[in-house]
Amino acid sequence: MSIQWYPGHMAKAKKKVEEGLKLIDVVIELLDARIPLSSRNPDIDDLLADQKRIIVLNKKDLADHKRTKEWKRYLAKSAPTLAVNSLTGAGVNQVLNLAQQIMKDKLSALADKGRKERDIRLMIVGIPNVGKSQLINQLSNNKSARTGDRPGVTKGQQWVKLRKGFELLDTPGILWPKFEDQEVGFKLAITGAIKEKLVESELLAYKLVEILQEVAPNKLKERFNLDQLTPDTYQLVADIGRKRGCLQSGGRIDRERTSKIIIKEFQEGKFGKLTLELPPTV
Ligand SMILES: Nc1nc2c(ncn2[C@@H]2O[C@H](COP(=O)(O)OP(=O)(O)O)[C@@H](O)[C@H]2O)c(=O)[nH]1
Ligand SMILES: [Mg+2]
After folding, report:
1. Atom of ligand 1 lying closest to residue 128 CA
2. Structural domains of the chain, with CATH
3. From 1, 29, 162, 231, which residue has the greatest number of CB atoms within 10 Å?
4. pTM of the entire predicted model
């Protein structure tokens, strides 16, 4: 599931997306609503410079609704932005409506030239685990209604018929995250986009607690039944461990076990809907 990116892989992935783009009318750039910036490919603006694009914040069911609104406003400066839940399909229809709106002028210009009406062609791009396959399933109503008669760019790639007037490339463009940024790596590990084992769980828990202190202190307090939040993260993790009875012989806090609990409960959504980063204020 997790992909190791090497320069060769990155060049190859980029080339694959570029080839796909030639056949595409509107690209769907899929991001994780909890970490919209950290789940973004660093080269995406260059890659999609000449492309009609929709930004879709996926997993909106896990993100803070108010923050998602703020992110939508912020990202709208780059491209029209929507939020969806690809597990239930909520918001997914709006993606197609928006694509139609974006293509309206181009399609009517083609019609004026007497061209035959044709489907709007879409492709999804995003980093691993952002929900590309899940969104493809939703858009195609979980049936792989392949058109069959026209190949995609790569061997084995197909167009899937969607709602009337749309078709989608069945293989998404997989791009790499900005992994050279350590903060980004932490957030990807916290949200489960990259394997946690790659990052030490104690370090990850400290990072998560630090983020929660900033973005959702009350949720942190409530979840672990803490009377107050000490600003000292190291101490705070110990407080949480004590509350959860993570003690070693001699009464010392088992930090490893505490850390695993914190991360697990976050990944299970026990803290409620949470967005881990805020849009930059300009
Ligand atoms: N809660 C939630 N989980 C989602 C959503 N979309 C995808 N997922 C989950 O995220 C994980 C990765 O999804 P997948 O479609 O395989 O990602 P891909 O690697 O981009 O194709 C899976 O466990 C999905 O069930 C969503 O909107 N909400
Ligand atoms: Mg996939």
Report:
1. 19
2. 7-174 (3.40.50.300), 200-267 (1.10.1580.10)
3. 29
4. 0.92
